[in-house]
Amino acid sequence: MANTISNSNTPPAQLVEVAAIASRYKGQQDQLMRVLLECQKVVNTFSEDVAAIIAREMGLSQTHVYGFITFYAMLSTKPRGKYIIRMCKSAPCHVRGAREVVKAMEDFLHIKMGETTEDNRFTLEYCECLGICDISPAIMINDKTYGNLTPESARELLKLYIREEGK
Amino acid sequence: MEEMRILLRNVGHINPTSVKEYMAAGGYQALKKTIAMKPEEILAEVKAAGLRGRGGAGFPTALKWQFVLSEDSPEKYIVCNADEGEPGTNKDRILLSGDPHSIFEGMAIAGKAVGSNKGFIYLRAEYPYLFPILEEALTEARAAGCLGHGIMDTDFDFDIEIRSGAGAYVCGEETALLESIEGKRGEPRFRPPYPGVKGLFGKPTVINNVETFANVGVIMDKGADWYRSIGTENSPGTKLFTLCGNVVNRGVYEFPMGANLKDIIFDIGGGIPDGKNLLAVQTGGSSGAIINADQIDMPLDIDHVSASGGKLGCGTILVIDDTNCIVDIVKNNLSFFEHECCGQCTPCREGGTRLLELVQRFIDGTAKLSDFDTIMDLSETMSLASLCGLGQSTPTPVVTSINNFRDAYNKHLDGDYCPVCSKERGRD
Ligand code: FES
User: Fold this and answer.
1) Among residues A143, B37, B136, B227, which is most buried (max CB within 10 A)?
2) pTM, entire model
């Protein structure tokens, strides 16, 4: 799990949006998850300034908000690409060739697992079982799932994403 | 062998969000009947049915409910654990996407039984596509008077809210899940007090798995006697199984408790694809026992699987073919736990890392004979001293695989060639 928060310069417009979301749930600690998931659509990563604003608007301590964010794998403290590719590494995918799919994606994108492409388009990450083992090996790209992957079909899939916006 | 689709009766046959279609198929009848009953009568029925939790531990559902009923509190909660995180488990996704109203109905009945008006579904973040389905189904249920204020023109109120996880396996542990809903890190609580006494927001709380709630409506509709006629003496009813890995027909199937593992794999699953042979089966997910091909002729119910050193748990059946290496699979299991350990208690945090190191030695070909004893000692400490089920069951795949595949470990001890691990050793 990630456990450091980077200090970064989030664009002011995004900070305003974050503040607007968080202020709707002032004093409601149990809505912190909802706030963070909504904010993650705006800011892509939780840097220190973002976390501080959420804490202030919701009336929580910064330590609480940081501690919360760093606990959950899907709340990110590292800048990530536009498309987050989550590769399942649990056993049911593992026994059906997940390793070869990982290798193919790494080679194709010229990055290693955990890294982001230079154009900030793709981030490759490992995750645990996506709950779609009937089509293992499986991945999730943002909110979409894909399965029964082979090295070839994984490359083809990535090509589709690249083609969508051109090189 | 054939499936017995009781919980899955509607899946694939009705529009999952439509309250009309659910009701046309007999849905919400059980709730209607239950609202007219006294809490004690409902509990007696669930108890007579012998329903046991389907999330992993197999705890008697009626007993859990009894604790909450006997608490004197104006606020009580019903929580549905939909944080299906055990690797290889898909059953709750199938229920929630295919028949969400059956889950709402079970939760509302639980609410009536213990005196609660508010339910929460804690849904894992890996299922983002289920949120709109559940929200729409909830809206329809409220509009039809099956949830909300004055359900079915009675004075019973019950409503449900959906809360999201964010990728933490440990939140499937009930007290960690409650912490997470409260907006905290998902770290398990010390018990006692148990959730039945002090649960969500400090109030008495029933927390059950999705599949457990799916059983509730069926029991209230058809009665305990009928329910008991299915399954085994100690585990009545049916069970959802997720069949995955190296098997031809993967997916979620429903069988009476006590169904034979071998038949499920070969009759229903169609055996091993691509002309390979069966090497091993792991039941109950990454924390389950790993057994060899000669041991699979066994009935799957809660007690039989426990006797084999594992747990029926969530009903996951991972089939592993002979192109795999058992030590590599165990390493995969352990790296899962190392990653998902919340770090709160030492036996789990330290022990998990050490176990992984020890198993890695076998993979590297640098293990020595005494490492077996070290592994066994460490495993015992972890099972006894860890705070929650995660740390307690991490050693299960290690211990069972050593018992059932001693040969494979010995070969690694000798540094013999292994098609999977030798590559990692970088020697060929
Ligand atoms: S193990 Fe990969 S989706 Fe379940």
Assistant:
1) B227
2) 0.93
